[in-house]
Design a protein that fits this description.
The protein is an alpha+beta fold. It contains 1 helix and 3 strands, in the order βββα. Strand 1 and strand 2 form a beta hairpin. Bound molecules: zinc ion.
């Protein structure tokens, strides 16, 4: 079972967005873009996530 802590919804049609498409940052290795797409509206939201934080969690 998969559980998403912060479920995203489309700002236009309010449908739940599918899993983010992860893109590497063009110049930094410690962050990445998460692109969310709506099945009806296409790409509607982009967030920046820290990859360092995830590594710290995994190491703990
Ligand atoms: Zn939508």
């Amino acid at each position: 079972m998969q559980f998403h802590l912060s479920e995203k919804f489309c700002p236009r049609c309010r449908k739940p967005l599918s899993d983010a498409i992860i893109e590497p940052h063009p110049t930094r290795t410690d962050v990445a873009f998460h692109n969310y797409e709506c099945v009806d509206c296409g790409p509607v939201m982009t967030t920046v996530v820290s990859l360092l934080a995830e590594k710290l969690v995994q190491a703990a």
